[in-house]
Amino acid sequence: MQNPSRKKGEAPVSEMLNEQIRHLLFLNPLLDIEFIKRQLNMLPSQLKNDKLETIRFLNKQRESYVKETSKDIKKDIKEHIRNWEKEIGPVAFSDVVELIEGKGITIMEAAPHLVSHRQIEQWLSAFLIGQPDYAKKLSFSFYLHEIRKNDEQLSLPRPNLLVYGPSGVGKTYATQKLAELFQIPFGVVNCNSLVQEGIDGNSLTTVFTQLYMQYNEGMSGAVIVFDEFDKLFEDGHYNQRILNELLNIIDDNNTLSFRKSDQIYNYEKVSMKTNKMLFIFTGVFRGIEHIVKKRLGDHGIGFSHGSGTCFKGDYHQYVTNDDFAKYFHRDELTGRILQYAYAKELKEDDLASILLHSVESPVTTFVNYFKIRNIDFSVTEDGARALASASIQRHLGVRGLKSLLFNILSDDMYALDTQQIIIDKDYVEMKTTWD
After folding, report:
1. What is the number of H-type helices and E-type strands within the chain?
2. Average pLDDT of the chain to the nearest whole number
3. Which among 302, 367, 384, 412 has most CB atoms closer than 10 A?
4. pLDDT one-digit tens code per residue, 117-134
């Protein structure tokens, strides 16, 4: 029976301490499994002070593991996971990611049986907030990419993905986070500043040279983002030769030739197949909604089509592969992109949730700054909503949240004459009157 004196959803201190101890025990593969089991068995009878002492001890032990650089650490990690699952129970995907951080072992090496598109999506949702469709499709693309590049014999679809939507909503950021998760070479091509091959400047193969200089042959399974890809189709930017070069690069049977280094003269070239690489295309793609509108009929949003289907919201969520085929006017291109994902404009609730709950919330950097100055810093729920509203009014998006926070906190960051700073609605409204 639930304790009526406890607020709904609030875990008692003892349970929170138990979970913290369990977490710290898992995050140290240098601990003997029998020692771990004894510690877990003692938890029900331990007093609060004893648990706090155990946490201090385990934190010190954890510091030793973080500094560990022996060649056997990969073996220790794999054995630790196997022993935990055998002797104690299931392990969480996110805990394994934390366990292997900085140890030169990938999640596919440490615990391949835990990797699934759903687990990847759940992990990504802690970083990418308010984009469920994008998170789902991007996670599946990376999952399938991992299988493809690690199995030379198995023939599987190539999960190239196109992501469309406004700037500043996490299109490139999410791809970079998953590349970090799987420790995959990652490169970005800015399509807005491309030149043709043979002309001085950034060409399509520049990013491959940069990756080769860092990873050599290890770049064969890289993830490449073609950012602002839509710029190649706008008036004044369309370049038939660059698109033809791109089609050759993303072709399954192509072997790409590019420079080994960034030397301008006397350079060597290297040839490499691109069939194990994953290509992500991102952009705003202004005008795609007009193609959808024409296909559905010019009745506006929130209408019932003649077929009886009711369309609600904005036209971007109804984009199909055929709509992009009309946008591109290149059948070869649509045949090489299997998925399309819409990264929608973030609303006030989404931005507030990013501030309060995202693993990489912009708030964290300011918490850290004031902490080293012994100042308690926090953001209330209504403060987060006020910040989100201010960001939307100024068209700042997610990227602008940090600069907005810096602007309103600059006086307090300089003064350092208080012991506590609470960012609530009144504080934000007072500090943003400069507009």
Report:
1. 19, 11
2. 88
3. 384
4. 999 999 999 999 999 999
